[in-house]
Each structure stands twice: as C-alpha cells, then as structure tokens.
Specification:
This protein is of the alpha/beta class and 386 residues long. The chain folds into two domains: 146 residues, NAD(P)-binding Rossmann-like Domain (Rossmann fold, 3-Layer(aba) Sandwich), CATH 3.40.50.720; 227 residues, Dihydrodipicolinate Reductase, domain 2 (2-Layer Sandwich), CATH 3.30.360. The chain is 33% helix and 23% strand. The chain contains twelve helices and 15 strands. The strands form two sheets. A nine-stranded mixed sheet has the order 14-13-12-11-7-10-9-8-15. Strands 3-2-1-4-5-6 form a six-stranded parallel sheet, sandwiched between helices. Strand 4, helix 4 and strand 5 form a beta-alpha-beta unit. Helix 4 runs parallel beside helix 5. The longest helix is centred in the last third of the chain and has 17 residues. It is globular, with a radius of gyration of 22 Å.
C-alpha cells in the first residue's frame, strides 16, 4: 500500500484539527479522502476542498473510498462506528475515550480480536511526549526502586459554562457517560497506569455539578492502592483556576517530580527501607542528589500518533497506543465514579455490566434540561495538556 486513504467521522473541534493536519500533508503516506458530518455548512466546506462528504458515518465506512477510519464523534458513537469499521475491513483509530464505559469498550475490543489483520489504535497522544517517556524509562530501569506513592494533582482543566452548553451531549449521562474523568483527565489516567501499572483498589470522591449546572462529575479526589502496597491520590477538576498539574512518583530509591515543564529526579544513595533498618541513629537520612532531566516538547503529538497509525498499517510498525490499551484508563475512570456513587471501595477489575446498568439508570432518571449555544473553537488548542 502506497498511501493510506483516511476518513474522519465527526467534524467537531478535534475532527477539524485532524483534518487540517492531514490536508496540510503533515502525515506522510496518508491522504484524507472523506469526512462525515451532520452539519451542512461543514459538508459544503469540505466538499469544496475536494473531499468525499457524507452525512452519516456508516455511509462513509461502506463507501469504499477509505482504507482507515478516524472516529471523532461524541463518546457513545465510538463503539458502534468502530465495530462497523472493523467489520467492513477498515483500520480504526478512535479518539479518547475508546468507549463511554467498560462494557462497551470490551465489545469493541472483541470485534477487533475477530479481525486481527486490522490496526486498531486509540488517540492517547501524551504517550508521545518525551517527558512521560523519560519517566517511564526510569521507572522500568529500577533506578527509583520499588514504587511507594504516586500523587497527581491535575486540576488545570478549567471550563466555563459556555463550554458545557456548546453541545447537547456534553456533561450528560446519556450523551457522555461522565465528566472530567472521562473527557478531560482520561489522558492522565492512561498515563498513570501506563507508567505505574493498574491499581487494584480505588475509592473515589466525586462531586457532581459542583462548579457548573451539569449532572456529571466536575471535581474529583481518588485514593488508589496497588497490590505491592503502593498508594496514590489523583485529583481533577474543571472548576478550579489557575489549577495545578503536578505528578510526583516516590520510590524506595528516590523521587520524580514533574511540574511547570520541569522534570526533577531526586536520587537516594541508598534504598530508604534498607537504610532505615541499618542506620545507627534515629534522625539520619540517606544522601540525596537532585538532577533536572531535560526534555523537549513533542511538536505535534496528535499528528505523530496518526503517523504511527499510518505506519502500522503500511509497514507493521508497533502502535504507540493500541486500542485495547484504552480499556485501562476507561476502567479506572469508571471505577472512580462508580466508587463515589456507591460510597465504597471498588476492587479492580471493575464489573463492567454493573456500571453499564448504573449508567442506564442515571440516564433514565436524568432531569437535566440543556440550552445549546454553539461557541467558538478558536482557542481549542489551549485545552491540550502536557
């Protein structure tokens, strides 16, 4: 295959961003041949730019003018469109989250397992960022020793009410299936388990509509436990400004701190647990050396992930974010929210069917009345967090 013919389903903010990158030739050996959108104005715009235009995603999938599909629709559409793509022989790249809840994600993954010849990727572009790759390298090398604690304060997702009224699906049980956990901080939840491994137990404390007139969570504190005794705390919010993005990982041989585009590594001269057992005095500490780890930002992480997807189709290059790995962040987001609603600790793996039933009950009981006021996407790029 020389060029991969790509089609995008869903031309909201992120779909348009991907389209512009492809039309500008920023992805080699890729050609954007078709888009699907229900908005007449956007249909006219892309038709004028020489693309095949469809008013329905299934029509694009069945058209025969694409080899691969990028799904960038509201959450609940990801799975039916993704399954249809795979069943009709189209490679698949899905925007986060890969589904609205775990049970649906498992259905999509099962469909891909029946078509292993096709590539299936998730849009978790922060895995491209050198800062997180450097953290992962250090954790895997053992230089930090055994992980003891991880804290991630991820509260710089401030959103105004204009954001929530920009679409009828946003911040609803029926249209989105959750709030800040599923939409904004899912990238950080992906990285959390990618870096540290999946926790075994979670206890979530989620406030629904604390800062906005919405029915889903916009303020979250979660406590996490791993099987080896490590613990963690994860905080997120769309109502706090200026907010904080600080990741701190402590091991028995040191600590990594990432904040404000600075990655700092504190290296202990001895394992703190062994030092504690053998030190002759009660107030001694092992010597520590602090080093800043330099890194550069990825220039265009979304585009780099699309390039990786295209390369996987053409040459078998390993995917940076295989679609099946999107289940872990989905499960963690679901479990934190389910734990809060149930008022109890949740053991992982999560019972996906139980959460799906709870979501259906929440959607059925919803009394939210939304007034939609489409807003400008001019500052959309500023929402991406490293």
């Amino acid at each position: 295959m020389n060029n991969v013919r790509l089609g995008i389903i869903g031309m909201g903010n992120i779909g348009q961003r991907h389209a512009e990158a492809l039309l500008a030739g920023q992805v080699s050996h890729a050609e954007l041949t078709a888009i699907a959108t229900t908005t007449p104005e956007k249909q006219a715009t892309y038709r004028e730019r020489g693309l095949q235009v469809f008013g329905d995603g299934l029509a694009l999938i069945h058209s025969g003018v694409v080899d691969a599909v990028l799904v960038a629709t509201p959450h609940y559409q990801h799975v039916p469109l993704g399954m249809a793509s795979l069943e009709h022989g189209r490679h698949l790249l899905v925007e986060k989250p890969i589904a609205a809840h775990k049970a649906d994600a498992e259905r999509l993954i099962a469909t891909h397992q029946r078509h292993p010849e096709l590539q299936f990727a998730g849009m978790f572009q922060l895995r491209i960022e050198p800062r997180y790759q450097k953290i992962r390298e250090r954790l895997r090398s053992g230089v930090l020793g055994r992980m003891v604690r991880v804290n991630w304060i991820n509260t710089d997702w401030f959103r105004t009410e204009a954001y929530y009224t920009s679409g009828d699906w946003r911040a609803t049980w029926r249209g989105e299936g959750g709030g800040v956990l599923l939409n904004q901080s899912l990238h950080q939840l992906d990285l959390l388990q990618w870096l540290c491994g999946p926790p075994r137990r979670v206890r979530g404390f989620c406030q629904l509509g604390r800062y906005h007139p919405i029915e889903v969570e916009d303020n979250v504190t979660a406590y996490l436990e791993w099987d080896d005794g490590a613990t963690g705390v994860f905080l997120s919010s769309t109502g706090e400004t200026p907010g904080t993005n600080r990741l701190e990982i402590t091991g028995t041989r040191g600590k990594l701190v990432l904040e404000n585009d600075r990655l700092e590594h504190t290296q202990l001269a001895a394992d703190m647990t062994e030092f504690s057992r053998t030190a002759p005095q009660g107030f001694l500490k092992p010597e520590a050396t602090i080093t800043e780890i330099p890194f550069t930002n990825a220039a265009a992480p979304h585009t780099a992930l699309i390039q990786n997807f295209v390369d996987a189709i053409r040459t078998g290059t390993a995917l940076v974010a295989p679609g099946a790995e999107g289940l872990a962040s989905m499960e963690l987001a679901n479990a934190i929210l389910y734990s809060s609603l149930q008022g109890q600790t949740i053991e992982l793996p999560l019972d996906g069917a139980a959460w799906e039933q709870k979501l259906q009950e929440l959607a059925a009981a919803s009394t939210l009345q939304k007034t939609v006021r489409p807003g400008s996407a001019a500052d959309f790029a500023s929402s991406f967090k490293r």
